[in-house]
Amino acid sequence: MRKRSALFGAVLALTVPVAGAVPALAVLGGTESTEVYPFMGSFQPEYPASPHPDGHGCGVEVLAPQWVLTASHCAGKNPTLAKVGVPHGWEVRVGSLDTASGGEVAEVDHYYRLATHRDEGGFWGKDLALMHLSTPVRAEPLRIASATPPPGTPVRIMGWGMTCNNSNNPECFTSALREADTVVQPEEACEELSPGELCIGSRDGSVASSNMDSGGPALVREGDGWALAGVVSGPSGDGPTLFTSVPEHAEWIKGIIDGTDVPPDDEIPNVEGAVELNGCVGSVVRGPESRPEDAALMLTNGHCVEGDRPAPGGALVDQPADREVPIADPEGWPRVKTRANRLVYATMTGTDVALYRLDKSYAQLEAEGAKVFQLATDPVREGDALAMAYTSQRFGCTAEAVVPHLREGGYQQDDSIRYATTEDCAPWPGTSGSALLAPDGDTVVGIHNTHNRDGEQCTADNPCEVGPDGTETAVQGRAYGQQVHQVAGCLTGSELDLTRPGCTLTRQ
Predict the structure, then answer these.
(1) N or C: fewer beta carbons within 10 Å in the chain?
(2) Within a 13 Å sphere around the CA of 90, how many CA atoms are in the beta-carbon half?
(3) Same-domain pairing of 320 and 391
(4) Structure confidence at residue 238 (pLDDT)
(5) In the prediction, which pLDDT does 6 show?
(6) Residue 124 burial (CB < 10 Å; 0-12/13-18/19+)?
(7) 244 lies in a domain?
(8) What is the three-class DSSP state of 439?
(9) How many CB atoms neighbour CB 369 within 10 A?
(10) Which residues, given as ranges, of the chain have pLDDT below 70?
């Protein structure tokens, strides 16, 4: 896999599985712009939230009164990773030197991505997206360059990228547009250059684009004005930046803007109720005795708690917590936002579960339209059909077997759920905590927690099954979920009682 990252996702929780270093400074070697570029804009999505104080996430360029161009991975921050669809809470500010004021602000009501990471070959060299604006802007559009510029061509780059790599430091963000003049480099100056990409910046990296410059332009002079030659895609080691060539995809752009070749919207899976927990997933559940006025509870894995995990053989009980809980609508956009203010319980022994108490009641969540699932009281059995409720899709799984014991990294779970291996049931790292739903779509009967990554025996990320005679068996790629019916037996409303008759959860 290409060892580089897109220059937006390194700060915003990335849904695109790429990794690597980013340059250290915004428009490295550049200066603050003193002249407004009417076509230049800042993409500011409400979701996912940007760490930039002004909400800036990527650069955009106005190509027509109701059309802006950016990078595909910028528009890829939609919950289901759709290629074409309708966003919620996205807007752009164009024609200003400042991300927080001036220029024109318009909402984005549709996005069209040229390619995604799921496409064959990924989106490298095709990292472009068009976004349609709900209202036209007055800014004079930027024209597309007549051809891909050859090495040695002078170009101007610009953006509002970070000035250092620490997203927790306010001084790393700039609201002032920066620019730099540089050149197109030959292919050998960039690492792993893909077809359709330009290598732009200084060979030593002293002039380059940076994190949150994605979608920003590489401009060339044509006639008496600027023309768009490239769009920032990602870094290339510590040297120049990789840009997608815009002229190579001019026909795709023209077909959508003119309305002659507009791709249809993706079919969006129903992912209602999934909770994104920064690398894990949760779901809001009610027990059999829950009342409308009770504080709501969220279920996830014990290994998904913030801070120290519960120790083998033990549990965490009634701990302080402060965790954002965005509950998704059917298309994955946050319908209701609440917070977890208490870790009620967490264990990785016997099962792998954590239960958080939220700052809203079941009645409040229902009034706001949030999906709340019912917590099962019966165990999953061999042959049961399961839907794994991830944040971007629903996996169709079957309980191939109920494994008496599963060991992993010093922990042991009992009556674990092994899934039948199919193309429809192939979870990956990051799907931990996804609810396993009964065919009714409303009842959480289990919770996904692990799969054997490397084929190792009983090590972390490599669970093994333990037979009646103690024989340990590990199969690379096998995935497992855990039972949750034990949780219901320990609840009275939203209160946990580990001494309650019938409660079998591990105690402290």
Answers:
(1) N
(2) 26
(3) yes
(4) 80
(5) 53
(6) buried
(7) yes
(8) coil
(9) 11
(10) 1-26, 28
